[in-house]
């Protein structure tokens, strides 16, 4: 029951669509422009850097706040590993962000929200590795999509290694359950980026700072 509650809490937080709301305040439906995505990258390309920064912060912070609320509410009165409940919350946030019911299930791609989930787990090692992976790949490749996918994949690999080696204190079914949830989060990132992956393979994905007409 607690898992369902955490999923619902997460989904409710995920429904706060920062890019969409910011666009509407400026009389723009962000989904009608650029890639048609309501996330950080498209908002930045369509409405500028300020809009992109605000969108990233809003989408990351909604995940962080959701996980922190679950942590403080359930940490003293649950028999389950609190991190597992946080992961269910994080999955809910990403589902709400990617598939908001009131927007016809057309939301973002969940990367900013995923970064907020990593932060909300309150493990600085996972956070630093995710940040390092994203920044290095972005600096080398200039592809936001590739950096995002590497961060998501890295999160899954790092979490799995940490859980299996005991660095993260998860045992038995909690360990397997946590790994499965993180895998789903990673898989959602790849599914939502499938057109980006196709463009990366074809060599026509836009690099950061690249003019629109190229």
Q: Any overview of this molecule?
A:
This protein has 214 residues and is mainly α. 71% of the residues lie in helices and 0% in strands. The longest helix has 26 residues, at 49-74. The mean pLDDT is 90.
Q: How many structural domains are formed by the residues?
A: 1
Shape: globular
SS-based class: mainly alpha
How far apart lie the N and C ends? 51 Å
Helix content: over 70%
Write the topology of this structure:
Elements: H1 2-14, H2 18-25, H3 40-47, H4 49-74, H5 82-98, H6 111-120, H7 124-141, H8 144-165, H9 172-192, H10 194-202
Helix pairs in contact: 1-4, 1-5, 2-4, 3-4, 4-5, 4-6, 5-6, 5-9, 7-8, 8-9
What characteristics describe this protein?
single chain; 214 residues; mainly alpha
Summed up:
The chain is an all-alpha fold and 214 residues long. It contains 10 helices and no strands. The chain has one domain (2-202).
